[in-house]
């Protein structure tokens, strides 16, 4: 969705954040805006908290975007949206701001669930990771499971805390402390606590925020903050960019916030996965022709905490048609196939980087030709690991990798 245009229209839409304390927690200005609206959008819970309401009420449909045309059709007439807490912290405000310029809105935020949770537990917000699992895959929490970390997580419903506890236990974080904070700020507020591996809480209110104090067991699967995850963490059939080469390749790709990667011939998806782990704004399209490998990529992505990785099933270059243009491209397989490299070079955004790794002579010939024609950097990467030789050890070399790195001017 494109950014909202600049507008000279006076504010007509008010977004009012409301808490479990209802009207009593609203400022006089927020109350006046709510009472002065002709139409109020929100959920049934919001209307109950903000009532009695004089205006016509419109409950959000599913999907909520179906209401946007009707909302925009009211442009210039007093309209209000009732939202939970801070509308711009994982709330409806962010969506509306993509449709309307800020000059047409007047926003009255309430305390967010994160602020309330910090006040209850005494955790500094600046030192606590704030996440949402509402409407999102549970595995998104995985990269944030760092020893000693503190997390505040908006949940989907009453089932989320138990699901998070099971995930933590399975990954070796069973000693972690979980605090379920229910309906904060209102008469139904309640606090429940349990260890992840001893979680047996029942009767949890659907409106809850989960706090997690991460404790890692000695064998916990902690996703490293640097590239080069252990090869055994990736389900694979041998088509895997190994950890040492993967780390060098990610360094060559130089990911920047908000960028999109094409991972052509993705194999086990290791480059795509580690690309997305570098920053939550990064996106990747893993292009893989083998159906079994494509399914394996999706499993690896979920297990390692980037379930939003998009897998494109098909063979390049045909599979590249119609895809969103990339800011960076990695070719780990198929560079010798006619048309693959040329199509990739053409699709790359100006200023973008292409990195290609090959181990075959045929692939190397293609990269040598590209280097002679376009320049860039050409490297030979060799890695050897100590292996047993009888009761002693010796160096066992892996196949050398030829890597070409090129920036589109």
Topology:
Elements: E1 13-18, H1 28-35, E2 39-42, H2 44-50, E3 56-59, H3 68-72, E4 79-84, H4 92-97, E5 105-108, H5 113-121, E6 129-132, E7 150-154, H6 160-170, E8 177-182, E9 190-195, E10 208-213, H7 243-253, E11 260-264, H8 270-277, E12 283-288, H9 291-303, E13 310-313, E14 328-331, H10 340-347, E15 353-358, H11 361-374, E16 377-381, E17 384-389, E18 392-397, E19 401-407
Parallel strand pairs: 1-4, 1-5, 2-3, 2-4, 6-7, 11-12, 11-14, 12-13, 14-15
Antiparallel strand pairs: 7-10, 8-9, 8-10, 15-19, 16-19, 17-18
What does the model show?
With 409 residues, the protein is an alpha/beta fold. The protein has 11 helices and 19 strands. The strands form 4 sheets. It has a 7-stranded mixed β-sheet with strand order 13-12-11-14-15-19-16, with helices on both faces. It is globular and about 80 Å long.
Which residues form runs of ≥5 with pLDDT under 50?
Answer: none
- Mean of residue pLDDT? 95
Q: Give a quick account of the main beta sheet: strands, pairing sense, barrel closure.
A: 7 strands, mixed
Shape: globular
Number of strands: 19
What radius of gyration results from the CA coordinates?
A: 26 Å
Category by helix and strand content: alpha/beta
Order of helices and strands: EHEHEHEHEHEEHEEEHEHEHEEHEHEEEE
Strand content: 15-25%
Q: Could you give the distance between the termini?
A: 28 Å
Discrete helix count: 11
In percent, how helical is the residue content? 10-25%
């Amino acid at each position: 969705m494109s950014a909202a245009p600049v507008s000279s229209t006076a504010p007509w839409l008010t977004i009012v954040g409301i808490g479990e304390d209802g009207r009593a927690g609203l400022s006089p200005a927020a109350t006046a805006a709510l009472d002065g609206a002709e139409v109020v959008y929100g959920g049934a819970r919001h209307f109950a908290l903000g009532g009695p309401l004089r205006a016509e009420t419109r409950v959000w449909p599913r999907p909520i975007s179906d209401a946007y045309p009707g909302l925009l059709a009211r442009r210039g007439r007093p309209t209000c949206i009732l939202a939970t807490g801070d509308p711009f912290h994982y709330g409806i405000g962010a969506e509306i701001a993509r449709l309307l310029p800020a000059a047409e809105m007047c926003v009255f935020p309430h305390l967010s669930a994160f602020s309330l949770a910090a006040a209850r537990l005494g955790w500094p917000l600046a030192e606590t990771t704030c996440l949402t699992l509402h409407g999102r895959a549970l595995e998104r929490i995985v990269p944030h499971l760092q020893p000693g970390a503190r997390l505040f997580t908006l949940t989907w419903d009453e089932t989320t805390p138990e699901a998070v506890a099971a995930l933590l236990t399975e990954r070796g974080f069973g000693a972690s402390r979980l605090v379920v904070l229910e309906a904060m700020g209102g008469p139904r507020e309640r606090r429940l606590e349990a260890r992840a591996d001893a979680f047996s809480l029942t009767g949890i209110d659907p409106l809850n925020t989960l706090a997690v104090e991460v404790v890692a067991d000695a064998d916990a699967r902690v996703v490293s903050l640097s590239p080069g995850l252990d090869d055994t963490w990736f389900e694979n059939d041998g088509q895997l960019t190994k950890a040492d080469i993967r780390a060098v390749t990610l360094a060559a790709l130089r990911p920047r916030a908000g960028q999109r990667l094409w991972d052509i011939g993705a194999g086990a998806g290791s480059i795509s996965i580690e690309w997305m782990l570098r920053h939550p704004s990064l996106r990747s399209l893993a292009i893989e022709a083998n159906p079994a490998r494509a399914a394996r990529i999706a499993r690896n992505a979920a297990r390692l905490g980037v379930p939003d990785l998009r897998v494109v099933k098909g063979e390049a270059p045909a599979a590249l048609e119609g895809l969103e243009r990339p800011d960076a491209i990695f070719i780990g397989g198929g560079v010798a196939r006619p048309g693959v490299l040329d199509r990739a070079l053409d699709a790359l955004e100006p200023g973008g980087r292409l990195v290609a790794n090959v181990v075959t002579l045929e692939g190397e010939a293609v990269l040598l030709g590209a280097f002679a024609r376009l320049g860039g950097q050409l490297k030979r990467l060799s890695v050897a690991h100590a292996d047993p030789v009888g009761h002693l050890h010796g160096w066992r070399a892996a196949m050398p990798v030829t890597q070409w790195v090129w920036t589109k001017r």
